[in-house]
Amino acid sequence: MNDQNNLLAFKKFLKENNLDGFIVTNPTNIFYLTGFKGVLPAEREAILVFDPSPTLITARIYQNEAARVKSRNLKIKIVAERNQIFESSAKLFKKAKRIGFEENDLKVAELKEFKKVLKKVRLIATKNLIEDLRIIKTEDEVKRIEKAQIISQKAFNELIKTIKVGQTEVEIAEKLASIIKSLGANGLAFEGIVAAGRNAGLPHYVTGNSKVTKGDVLLFDFGAKYKDYCADLSRVVFIGHTDGRYHHIYQHVLNAQKMAIEIITSGIKVSNVYDAANDYFKKHNLDEYFLHGLGHGIGLDVHETPHLRSGLPTTNDQLLTNGMVFSVEPGLYFPWGGIRIEDLIVIKNGRAKVLGKLIDEIIEV
């Protein structure tokens, strides 16, 4: 990850979008462009402004962290207190007349404050300017995501040796988090899912205190974080002797995933990849149980562009290309539970490459 290259690329992006200034408030985007990481992402502890050259503004509590990212391409301004960050940032705009801001991150109250100070400036809401830069991963970024995914797979393989009837979902989740840390990850990339029995039929189930019983389907959705980059993995474990239809559904989900991965090439539409899996489910009268998109990009955030969907005009025509990293995660959901299998793909040399290993066999414990 080369922060200087990212800064220069974004400056070029601004010119292409007819902007001579910009306000970056999203902490992840600030980190991507500068390498600066605040301690509390939920609070405004740093703002990055372009006029058109970039200046990072943060409170003195972070002056040492800020000093580490200072360069000839990035100025640093330290203010005494956090509540002075916005006031100071507005004063830095001397040349800019058309200033962009992150529509999905800047708060209404913050925008009002900028409008008060920058009365002669046109403030322009933008969507995904920095996120669009983040779509294509460098080799270093891909290596970090792959390492996170391999750690996730190793952790899962260790965990299944410890699963017992009578354990709660929370107990299993805590054990999984401990294993992930022991394997060298920073921790979890997101709040994972451990769903037993009927709970596995809820795609975004919140892990609870349900106990694992014989005959259950046990669904996992989790990922490690390694050097700031996320993984995402979904697996299913069958507890003891299970209903044969569960295995039947598992095989269909596995087949749909394989079919989708096989057609992935640089230049293919995201909707075509989704349709490959959905059409397979249609052929077997299962498509009504496929309740979500086929996959999503991954990187510094667990959900990024591209999104493998169909039926959405804004995303259908997006083309997959070299350097994109994303999940392929078909799933089917029923009253008795659900099956989801998820792996990560990078497009390299025009073809799909799996990060880590795909799973073939049914896992029973």
Automatic annotation (TrEMBL):
Residues in Creatinase N-terminal domain copies: 9-136
One Pfam family recorded for the sequence: Creatinase_N
Keywords: Hydrolase, Metal-binding
Organism superkingdom: Bacteria
Residue ranges of every copy of the Peptidase M24 domain listed in the record: 144-348
UniProt xrefs under Gene3D superfamilies: Creatinase/methionine aminopeptidase superfamily (3.90.230.10), Creatinase/prolidase N-terminal domain (3.40.350.10)
One Gene Ontology molecular-function label: metal ion binding
UniProt xrefs under PANTHER family: AMINOPEPTIDASE, XAA-PRO AMINOPEPTIDASE P-RELATED
Family that this chain belongs to: Belongs to the peptidase M24B family.
Entry protein name: Xaa-Pro dipeptidase
Source species of the chain: Candidatus Curtissbacteria bacterium RIFCSPLOWO2_02_41_11
